[in-house]
Amino acid sequence: MxxxxxxxxxxxxxxxxxxxxxxxxxxxFDVLCVDNYxxxxxxxxxxxxxxxxxxxMRHDVTFPLYVEVDEIYNLxxxxxxxxxxxxxxxxxxxxxxxxxxxxxxxKRVRATxxxxxxxxxxxxxxxxxQPESYWGNSNPIGLRACYDxxxxxxxxxxxxxxxxxxxxxxxxxIFNTYGPRMHPNDGRVVSNFIVQALRGENVTVYGKGTQTRxxxxxxxxxxxxxxLMRTGDDITGPMxxxxxxxxxxxxxxxxxxxxxxxxxxxxxxxxxxDDPVQRQPDIGFARRAxxxxxxxxxxxxxxxxxAYFDRLLAQRN
Length: 317
Ligand code: NAD
Ligand code: UDP
Prior knowledge:
With 317 residues, this protein is of the alpha/beta class. It has a domain at 6-178 and 217-242 and 280-295: NAD(P)-binding Rossmann-like Domain (Rossmann fold, 3-Layer(aba) Sandwich), CATH 3.40.50.720. Helix content is 38%, strand content 17%. The protein contains nine helices and 13 strands. Helix 1 links the parallel strand 1 (6-10) and strand 2 (30-35). Nicotinamide-adenine-dinucleotide is lined by residues 10-11, 13-17, 35-40, 60-62, 75-79, 94, 98, 116, 118, 174, 176-177. Nicotinamide-adenine-dinucleotide (NAD) is lined by residues 10-11, 13-17, 35-40, 60-62, 75-79, 94, 98, 116, 118, 174, 176-177.
């Protein structure tokens, strides 16, 4: 492996981005982390500051960026429904203008560029589990559209830059991923349930809790990112990355309460609009192309994530 490779990670101070920066530094790369700290924090990357191969730049990807790099991982975008719906226009701009700016950068410096796309491109899927060939069922004008349609448009841009400019692209469709360094107030289900259970507060299940999700531990996901980036030019994606183990939200709530020995009660709240009913990745393509499969079962990943939030909440008290 070349050790002089310079890698740009946008959204590098976020949950997944911080794990990716750490992994890339461990693999010997020079890492430039770009973030506007909308949902990410310096705390997520503070342990990397002493590394001379790590550089951080406060920058919003909706503005052009001029740097010299060999590879780009484009992760900048809020991922939690609460955060991406806070300023929906900015969310679309981040996905679309951010993609245009990063693709323009990749074109100028001839870098390979990776896009953190999402299972949300399938919307509320009518095909189960979801293969990459499924075009999806998304609402273009709903509350989730700023994220879903923004990410869909970003995929369009990636494939047009590939066709028109022969850019080397790697598009990953990421399914629900969890682990340490999720924001405690980020509103996503795993962090919400763990924080609520550890604080002894009610655990808020939206709807009846019969909707399903498939949860991937962050280390498994980052391993897949690295393998996808290393594939030959014939592999562009889109490629589903996630853990096919599927659970109802109610099952998750019960699991978290049991694991934390919490006395929290489960309460049922209104289901947010356009909330997908069922989600499970078909990861056949990733298995074949990357020789990859997730290795951390939900029980183990939850234990590690609970330990992280336990420490974090203790520090704050
Ligand atoms: P996150 O919110 O923790 O990280 C996103 C990072 O991007 C944050 O550090 C944020 O400050 C930064 N950011 C947001 N807008 C920016 C802008 N305009 N300019 C620069 N930086 C900006 O979320 P995450 O879970 O780490 O997600 C990372 C990427 O993976 C996102 O693109 C997300 O859409 C994608 N993804 C995540 C999941 C998941 O389950 N975690 C699932 C599907 C897709
Ligand atoms: N959810 C829930 N309680 C919460 C947060 C989320 O029941 O406190 C549900 C949410 O309605 C959805 C699922 O958990 O059905 C996953 O939500 P999340 O925001 O983590 O991600 P999504 O997959 O919807 O983008």
